[in-house]
Amino acid sequence: MKKCIPELYGSLVFNDKIMKNKLPGDVYKALRKTIETGSHLELDVANAVAVAMKEWAVENGATHFTHWFQPMTGITAEKHDSFITPAGNGEIIMDFSGKELVKGEPDASSFPSGGLRATFEARGYTAWDPTSPAFIKDGTLCIPTAFCSYSGEVLDKKTPLLRSMEAINKEALRVLKLFGNEDVTRVYSTVGPEQEYFLVDKQLFNSRNDLKFCGRTLFGAPAPKGQEMDDHYFGALRPRVSAFMKELDEELWKFGIPAKTKHNEVAPSQHELAVVYTTANLAVDNNQLTMEVMKRTAEKHGLVCLLHEKPYEGINGSGKHNNWSLSTNTGVNLLDPDREPAKNLQFMLFLAATMKAVDVYGDLLRVSVATAGNDHRLGGNEAPPAIVSMFIGDDLASVLDIIEADAESEAKETVTMTAGPKVLPHFIKDTTDRNRTSPFAFTGNKFEFRMPGSSLSVSGPNVILNTAVADSLGAFADRLEKVPAGKLEEEIHTLLKEVIRAHRRIVFNGNGYTEDWVKEAGRRGLFNLPACADAFPCFIAEKNIALFTKHHVFTREEIFSRYEIMQENYVKTINIEAKTMCSMMYKTFLPSLLSYIETIAEATEKTKKVLPSAPVISQEKLLSTLARLYTSISEMTEELKSAIAGADSIGDSMEKVRYFNYTVLAKMNGLRSFVDEAEALIPESFLTYPTYDKLLFSI
């Protein structure tokens, strides 16, 4: 690393320090006002910003600019235009206007629109988001933007997030004013994603079509060793992995992404990267860029970064824990309980609002993480279950008891932990343990939403959280704003009791993996939506449509367009996987199995001829087993092929989702069981692809 970290950090970002140095004072103030308050930015200010941005970008080697946006594909998109403008006499100038900064016109017809746009309706617009700083990537100035169609329909993941942030800002400010917080002018949702991922050798990756086309292995016998020894978690980093992580940190720091923590995860070849929290909008942008940089950096080291939620069967999958909180522009974390949370009515109101939101809109939280990949992960191997519940710990649970019973609270003394030997330092014990089985866990001053999958844009989950909590806060404010100041505290206590009694069913501090919890959740009436086919219809439930439209996060048309896109993505994903599995059976696995059968048969016959009295019962038993498996695999591959074709006659989108979930995927799982059994009996020399042994233990 040539530069020290402070010099390196943000060196490719048009950040506040650069803006202050490059912009005239009045322009800088106007831009800061827009960033901090959301006020309109005049074109003359945009022109001045564009000139400074272009000069800085060119000084740092940029030749092009792009409006960097997040369509409904789940990844980012960019169209590159150079700064050059012909100046006559065969010469050019480097130019960039405020109009080019503020607005772009990409083709909107080839991105998912869920029926909002016809193929021939091509025009779309991108609009500059000044709250997320521009950056330079591969010689191109990247300008974060929102994306909409010619007629104004939202076609991206950024715009709904910004709308939801406005909603929670508006309603949270109303509540804060009741407590006399006149100095607070802005409330931000803050997010810190924890990104899990797998690394695999690039040559091995390229030898498996399922990894290349689907991001996960569609079959594979387990390796003799998995994660049962618990020796990979937090283990020493192997040199190749360490070199990758070191370069990844440096690349992310250049983009101003506060990469903080890196370590080995539980499963072999699984790792995690955690960043320092920031505002939700910037956190989402940073995470999208992080995933891109992870993949690109891995290739430099002869590796491939797998972001699929379940690339390997039988070991942990990868999630993206979404640490969510609310902070004011004055630096106050609204989910920090202090020492006596029962007496901290402001905190308790925000906690109650979150509790109500998760209870009422738990179905939407489940929908926000519903993908074909995440269905394989949820409910096992340290992933949270598909039942949405909230963990708050024993201390806060006792606070709920106190409020519900109108009892007096007492400040709990801090507990000093000692580990025994005097040489070890003493430290303060946290007020609550961590529950790894909870989908939505309070962790001291934030909530950790653990259901999102590793490949997911965390825009969706945060749109739901922001909007649902905003709705709760708005309802609280509607009621409390009518109460005289002298009776406000009493009314808050009454409100808290009502909310706790109505929504405490969502609180569960136990083990979310047990069958007992599934039954208990059913008795409580909690949402249990195991698969996408169960979750998707909830998105268009009338109560959820009312939520989105009330807070101007989505129009009704935008809701149904996203519903259609969810279904399309699921069907296309399983269809690709099923076709890949059939192809690998016909072209790879069945020929290998047949070759081994022929080899064993020939060897058995030779043994009989040379040594007629030699026992060959073991060979014949193996032959019988392999022949049975060959027949079963051949037949089930044909059944899978027919099942894929059967989907063509289904017109209804949701019915097609159910068909792929309950028919096609079921046949894939059935086929896999026979393939895995057979693979365990075949020598590696007969297989044309790497097995789990190599995939998981090669780096």
What can you see in these coordinates?
It contains 23 helices and 19 strands. With 699 residues, it is α+β, with helices and mostly antiparallel strands. The strands form four sheets. Strands 9, 10, 11, 12, 13, 14, 15, 18 and 19 form a nine-stranded mixed β-sheet that branches. A hairpin with a 2-residue loop joins β7 (135-137) and β8 (140-149). The radius of gyration is 28 Å and the shape is globular. It starts with a helix and ends with a helix.
Rg, rounded, reads 28 Å
The poorly predicted ranges are none
| Beta strands, count | 19
Distance, first to last CA: 24 Å
Q: Number of DSSP helices?
A: 23
- How much helix is in the residues? 40-55%
Strand content: 5-15%
State the secondary-structure class. alpha+beta
**Global morphology:** globular
- What is the makeup of the main sheet? 9 strands, mixed
Averaged pLDDT, please?
A: 92
Spell out the blueprint of helices and strands:
Layout: H1 5-8, H2 16-22, H3 25-37, H4 43-59, E1 64-68, E2 80-82, E3 84-88, E4 91-94, H5 98-102, E5 103-104, E6 124-128, E7 135-137, E8 140-149, H6 158-178, E9 187-201, H7 202-206, H8 209-214, H9 239-254, E10 259-264, E11 270-275, E12 278-279, H10 280-300, E13 303-306, E14 320-328, H11 345-360, H12 362-368, H13 372-377, E15 390-391, H14 393-405, E16 416-417, E17 427-428, E18 440-442, E19 447-449, H15 459-480, H16 488-503, H17 515-524, H18 532-535, H19 542-550, H20 556-610, H21 617-646, H22 653-679, H23 692-697
Parallel strand pairs: 1-8, 15-18
Antiparallel strand pairs: 1-2, 3-4, 5-6, 6-8, 7-8, 9-11, 9-12, 9-13, 9-14, 10-11, 14-19, 16-17, 18-19
Helix pairs in contact: 3-4, 6-10, 6-15, 9-10, 11-15, 11-16, 14-16, 20-21, 20-22, 21-22
